[in-house]
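Input record (one chain):
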Amino acid sequence: MADDLLKPASRSQEIHAGIWVLGVALVLGYFGARGAIMYLHGSRAAPADPVACAIGILAGFVGSYLGVRMLFGWHEERALVPTLFLLVGGVSALAGAIWFITINRALHGSILEDAWLGYYFGLVGLTAIILWWRRARGLPPE
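The corresponding structure, as predicted from the sequence alone:
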């Protein structure tokens, strides 16, 4: 099973993943820009939080770059997801998991209520960090 996950993707899989990544990036960028405009016009509601806006706009730019790169197959001689992105994304996902579980306890009084979402973030983060580590050490994908 793990061998199937580490095999190079076919061109059709890259296009499919590129469409999804680009779509999610555009949605995140849209809401980030919308929140920034709301904040600049004086709104202090949760969607206009400057940190959330910055994260949405940054995710929109980076995700759009990765999505377009997957769609058009730029630099196919290298990995389509850059190595640095794996490290930054993995650490961000782990931080998001810790934050989600912590805020879940503060808001709901139970660390286990809806904790599965935090565990998924953590699993994605750990997987990205492991893939980064394998690439950084020059290990083959098996």
